[in-house]
Design a protein that fits this description.
mainly alpha; 5 helices; elongated
């Protein structure tokens, strides 16, 4: 029996599968965490909880766009991963320089320290994957 082969532009195989699995975990974790925080303790840390909700939305967009083939999905993934990386760097720096602004942590606080720095590493890995030869072939596929 032959083993099924992946389409040349499919980002759901190889390293892409690991990246997708990690983003699925982050979607589940950040959506549930931000929903609980916003619905029960919004007054305590609205900036932190709002940023957590924004991060959750970014993770959903990344997961969906990485799961879909085609040029448009490739661009959405690239932009969303860049937004995530910039967000981690900005919020991480902000939370270190002005910790009083963050009475409760976000997924991006201190560069994702509470999440083993995966929020800092994942967008770099995702961008590397998209910009690699195999990921770039996905951009050349049909929309």
């Amino acid at each position: 029996m032959r083993r099924p082969t992946a389409h040349a532009g499919d980002r759901r195989h190889g390293p892409g599968r690991v990246i997708l699995a990690l983003y699925l975990i982050f979607v589940i974790g950040t959506v549930s965490r931000s929903a609980a925080q916003i619905s029960t303790r919004w007054e305590e840390a609205p900036l932190a909880y709002g940023l957590s909700a924004f991060a959750a939305l970014v993770y959903v967009v990344i997961l969906v766009s990485l799961s879909v083939r085609g040029r448009a999905a490739w661009w959405v993934s690239t932009i969303a991963l860049t937004v995530e990386l910039v967000g981690v760097l900005v919020v991480g720096t902000w939370s270190v320089l002005a910790p009083q602004m963050f009475p409760d942590a976000t997924v991006w606080s201190t560069f994702g320290r509470g999440y083993l720095f995966l929020p800092l590493v994942l967008p770099v890995l995702g961008l590397w994957w998209l910009l690699s030869d195999r990921g770039a072939r996905a951009a050349a596929g049909p929309d």
